[in-house]
Amino acid sequence: MGGMQDFLIQQVKNAVLNHASQQGTGFDPSALLNQISGAAQSGNLNAGTIAGLIQNHADDQQHTGFDPGPLINQVHGLFGQNQQARQDGDAQYGNVKSSDQDAYGDPADEQGNFGNVKSSDEDPYGDPADEEDNKQR
C-alpha cells in the first residue's frame, strides 16, 4: 500500500472506531477492522467495498442496534476527499515539501518566518531554544 492509501485506510478505521464508540451500543468493530485491512491489502479498496463490509458487519450485529448509515456516509466522504486530492495532485497537504526541498521540514521556515530555526545537522536537539538552554546549564 502507498502512503496516501495507508492514510486513507487509517482514516476509515478511525471513523469506524469513533462511530462505534459514539453510538455506545456494544457493537464490536474488531472483525470489521480486520476485513477493511484485508480489502486494502488485496487492492480492493474503494468506497463501495468498504460500505458493503460495514453494512454486512452491522447486519451480523443487528442485535446491538448499531446504525451504520452515518458511518457509511462518512466513509464515502473520506473516499471522495481522497479522490479529489489525487485529481488536484496535491494530496492531503498540498503545501508540504519533501525534506530535499525544505531542510527545516516546515514550509513556513523556508520563507524566513523563523529566522533562528536550524536544520537538524546544525541543531541535534531539534529545537533551537533547547540548544541555548543546554549551554546555560
Percent helix, as a range, is: 55-70%
Strand content: under 5%
Q: Total helix count? A: 6
Structural class: mainly alpha
Separation of termini? 47 Å
Give me the count of strands: 0
Can you tell me the overall shape?
globular
Q: Stretches where pLDDT falls below 50 for ≥5 residues?
A: none
Mean pLDDT: 75
Overall number of structural domains: 2
Radius of gyration: 21 Å
Summed up, what is this model?
The protein has 137 residues and is mainly α. It has six helices and no strands.
Architecture overview:
The chain has 137 residues and is an all-alpha fold. The chain folds into 2 domains: 3-88; 107-136, no CATH class. Helices cover 58% and strands 0% of the residues. The longest helix is centred in the N-terminal third of the chain and has 21 residues, at 3-23. It is globular.
Secondary structure: elements and pairs:
Blueprint: H1 3-23, H2 30-41, H3 47-60, H4 69-88, H5 107-110, H6 128-136
Helix pairs in contact: 1-2, 1-4, 2-3, 3-4
Notable features of this structure?
137 residues, mainly alpha
